[in-house]
């Protein structure tokens, strides 16, 4: 897959997650993809990703805005903002960074997410 198509798949991912289109976004991941996110054990495989997006994810609704996307080889880094509402009704607004690793077919084989929030 060419780099332009890979970048578009990353943008497509955020559109699909914001729309709640779980089946569409799962198709962007390799069957054995690994997703690491603060507060969760590593999610391994599409079944774990499906469980996360359809139930475990604490976000009820929201919108991602990609501010920066940098791609090199099989890696794409994203910096952006998220504004939304958690399932408990809490409003949330934060910055995030995502790192994607692409397989030969352009699907995501790994994703790591980091959030900017005060810890210390």
TrEMBL record:
Keywords: Isomerase
Sample GO molecular function, one term: isomerase activity
Residue intervals of the SnoaL-like domain: 10-110
UniProt-listed Pfam families: SnoaL_2
SUPFAM superfamilies, A to Z: NTF2-like
Taxonomy, superkingdom: Bacteria
Gene3D superfamilies: 3.10.450.50
Protein name: Ketosteroid isomerase-related protein
């Amino acid at each position: 897959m060419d780099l332009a198509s890979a970048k578009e798949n990353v943008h497509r991912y955020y559109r699909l997650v914001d729309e709640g289109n779980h089946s569409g976004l799962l198709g962007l991941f390799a069957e054995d993809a690994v997703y690491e996110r603060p507060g969760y054990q590593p999610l391994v495989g599409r079944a774990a990703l499906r469980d996360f997006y359809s139930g475990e994810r604490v976000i009820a609704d929201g919108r991602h805005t990609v501010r920066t996307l940098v791609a090199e080889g099989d890696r794409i880094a994203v910096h952006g903002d998220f504004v939304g509402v958690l399932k408990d009704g809490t409003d949330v607004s934060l910055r995030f960074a995502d790192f994607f690793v692409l397989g030969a077919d352009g699907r995501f084989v790994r994703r790591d997410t980091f959030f900017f929030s005060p810890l210390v």
